[in-house]
Amino acid sequence: MRLHYKKWSALLFIFPLLINVAGAQTNKNSSLSAIKHIKTAKLEMSAHTEYLRALMLVLYELNPDELAKSTQVGAREMTEWVFDGKANWRFEGVRRLQKAQAIGLALDPDFAGDHILALIVGIETLLFDAYGGTNEFDIPELQNEQKHMQALCELQRVLQKTTTQTDTSKAITVLEKPTSRREIQNTLLAIIKRLNAKNVKQADQACLLINDVDLQN
């Protein structure tokens, strides 16, 4: 009788420990999954940033007159200042605009400022917003799928605008020059491909719905 009592006492002691261990393992797996998710999102955002950094540099090298609207330094120095500086992606030269508003400025032929700066700032901050951060390092665990989709659709619009043949009888921006357009299109396609890798069909349908709403408005 005493032996059975000891066995049950041992089991009652061990069972809660097993539950705690299992719970700890579940929490550990959940934490590891969250860390992996954040790491993946950061790697994606970092790749987008490197694409845009390279695009900005080549566009300034192709269009030195546009660079001169912002600075007297070289293309590489300007690019490094934009991406590595302390301006927090709010630049007076593009009216402190970000995301779609900055992109709209970049595509506006009446804008007298630096169209290249406006384009890069617009796309980069649009991607920050898509990943829920304020920069390429500040990426939260939870991702907003709707913002992700909105950014994808906006980039597809920009790609469409840069692909559409420009009326040469009207004023055009440096972004509409053939050499610039080619560089922009290649970069946008690479970014869109990465954003669109998970749900191509779903993304296309969502963009069609968003475009329909905009047309109705």
Number of domains: 1
* Overall pLDDT metric: 79
Radius of gyration: 25 Å
Write down how many β-strands occur, each being a DSSP E stretch of 2 or more residues. 0
Strand content: under 5%
Shape: globular
> Fraction of residues in helices?
over 70%
Could you describe the largest sheet, including whether it forms a barrel? none
Distance separating the two termini? 82 Å
* Uncertain stretches: 24-37, 212-217
Structural class: mainly alpha
Tally of contiguous helical segments: 8
Order of helices and strands: HHHHHHHH
Structural overview:
It is a single chain. With 217 residues, the chain is mainly α. It has one domain (47-216). Helices cover 71% and strands 0% of the residues. It has eight helices and no strands. It has helices at 2-62, 64-67, 75-84, 99-106, 115-130, 145-163, 178-195, 200-216. Helix 6 (145-163) packs antiparallel against helix 7 (178-195). It is globular and about 40 Å long.
